[in-house]
């Protein structure tokens, strides 16, 4: 049963990373484009370090291109992600990101010809329903009055679903550390592509002088936490009876984020302050339960 501890450990660390992201965008960096580029720079350093200890392994051309593309897509997904969490509570944003598996199903159906099973179809609509509940500004008659963060969450979910589909094209087994290292390098390439755009480059250069020095340590720490979470998640998959069990248990991520949010808002409001009114918490829990059941259906 140690796979359960690894999975929960990875999930808990991912939740910590979410709140560090929120802290950075609200208290330290503030500009989501600048934070994305800084994250890409740190990812490059981590990627080089990981690949150095792996002696910079080389795989087939197609595999290398696909892994790098996955990293680029992950980096680009940070832009709408940071924008979304700058607009809303992290405990409201993270559960909606559970729609990413929905986009994986759609992309796999369109590009890979995979068939949807009945449980997956049910899970598909349950996740959509839960995400919709969280996306409403207020429960009531105005069912189309959605929160500003929704469109950004959807865009980030699509960009983060693409790597999952890309890796299905990889026909050989790739070492976990190699894949992680090249994914970091891909993120750095994505950062360079952003930097080549004059408007983004000028925006970054104007904003970087305002960034507090403490932000760099927080960004590096966040990348390290992400790396540890990925490692724990990987080992959970290796030793678990089935990958689907790890995916389902990972569905507790939104609940852990909600718990963290309540704790921080009550005892450390100077760091993170969320809406913890009883009605709001009830809506969040209701939506999280619906989404979790949807994730379970998709993975059965």
Automatic annotation (TrEMBL):
Keyword Cytoplasm: no
Residue stretches spanning the membrane: 32-53, 65-82, 94-112, 118-137, 149-172, 184-204, 224-246, 252-269, 281-298
InterPro entries linked: EamA_dom, EmrE-like
Residue ranges annotated for the EamA domain, each copy included: 2-135
GO cellular component, one term: membrane
Pfam family of the protein (one): EamA
Keyword presence, Transferase: no
UniProtKB keywords: Membrane, Transmembrane, Transmembrane helix
Record's protein name: EamA domain-containing protein
């Amino acid at each position: 049963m140690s796979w359960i501890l690894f999975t929960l450990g990875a999930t808990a660390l991912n939740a910590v990373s979410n709140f560090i992201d929120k802290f950075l965008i609200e208290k330290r960096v503030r500009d989501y484009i600048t934070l994305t580029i800084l994250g890409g720079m740190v990812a490059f350093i981590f990627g080089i370090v990981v690949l150095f200890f792996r002696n910079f392994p080389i795989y087939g051309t197609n595999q290398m291109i696909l892994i790098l593309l996955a990293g680029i897509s992950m980096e680009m997904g940070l832009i709408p992600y940071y924008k979304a969490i700058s607009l809303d509570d992290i405990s409201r944003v993270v559960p909606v990101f559970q729609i990413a598996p929905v986009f994986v199903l759609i992309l796999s159906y369109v590009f890979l010809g995979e068939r949807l099973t009945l449980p997956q179809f049910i899970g598909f609509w349950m996740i959509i329903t839960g995400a919709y509940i969280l996306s409403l500004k207020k429960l009531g008659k105005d069912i189309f009055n959605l929160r500003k963060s929704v469109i950004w969450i959807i865009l980030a979910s699509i960009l983060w679903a693409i790597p999952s589909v890309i890796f299905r094209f990889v026909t050989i087994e790739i070492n976990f550390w190699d894949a992680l290292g090249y994914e970091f390098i891909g993120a750095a390439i994505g950062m360079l592509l952003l930097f080549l755009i004059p408007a983004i480059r000028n925006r970054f250069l104007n904003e970087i002088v305002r960034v507090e020095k403490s932000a760099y340590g927080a960004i590096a720490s966040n990348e390290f936490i992400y790396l540890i979470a990925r490692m724990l998640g990987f080992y959970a998959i290796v030793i678990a009876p089935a990958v689907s069990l790890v995916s389902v248990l990972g569905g507790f991520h939104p609940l852990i984020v909600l718990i963290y949010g309540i704790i921080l808002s009550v005892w450390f409001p100077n760091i993170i302050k969320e809406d913890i009114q009883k009605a709001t918490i009830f809506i969040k829990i209701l939506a999280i339960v619906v989404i979790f059941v949807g994730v379970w259906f998709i993975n059965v």
